[in-house]
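Let's practice the habit of predicting before peeking. Look at the sequence and jot down your guess about where helices and strands might fall. Then scroll down.
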Amino acid sequence: MLDVITGFAIIFVVISAGYILAHRGVIGEGEQRLMFNRVAYWVASPSLLFTTVAKSDTSTFLSPVVVVVFLATAVTMAVFWIVSALFFKADVPTRMAGAASASYFNSVNIGLPIAIYVIGDATYVAPVLLMQMVIVSPVVIAGLDVNPDSQSSRGQNVIKAVKTGLTAPVVVAPLLGLVVSAAGWTVPAPVMEPLEILGGASIPMILMSFGASLRGGSVLAEGPDRPATITASALKLVFMPAAAWLLGLLAGLDGTALYAAVILSALPTAQNVFNYTANYRVGETVARDTVFITTFASLPAMIAIALLFGKGI
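Done guessing? Here is the structure:
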């Protein structure tokens, strides 16, 4: 249990540091705060993703657990999209921010300790991370990059969005890492070690920017983003784990494999979603508030899942 608590403690402490620094004026508003997100998006996060995937075992990437988690992610995004279209109208970027918040989960600094302690096996973390970055991230980034006020044709907008999604540094980096891992290459230390140092800055920068963004704002404040935030949080904490359980049963999973798929699907919304929205300056409030809510509420949710599966905590 200590590993799980440590994973959550890392997040809360670094977020608090960002909040305090913003409160004291060390981290300014607007462009100054967003510099953290831009450095993370363009340099630190790609470095982290490349080094993580390059050292992973590609034989686990097509595990049935990973397939079930991917399907649960896709279904959850689709459900948010439908609910949003029916009940709270929004443009494409804002709707994509909510759909990502409802389904894109933290597979690194919370996912790893959860996998090790709660599931008892960290095998699925790297392939799930790769699935999110290579398949889900391009879709999310493409949606966030859509300009609803553009004078270009729909076809031109789609081509531009797809190009942006597929060429984003956080997508290209894990793909390169996959090539290295699949080929069995060893990256020379003078190349790998600087990238590992840069990658180590990714999570702290994103979390501190997130903490700074809480300064002067309140979670679930009255406004047009509130219904989307509540919907995304409910889908992330309840619907997505339930979808993973049902899809897992249909796929023939049982025992530890089914438990792993459900627990991974119950992880809180990833700070990467906030980083993406901050970088594109759309849907930031929905992403920020959903990350905040699910980070606090996911631990009791996962404890409940463990008890339902007859696992001790």
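How did you do? Residues 58-182+219-309 form one domain.
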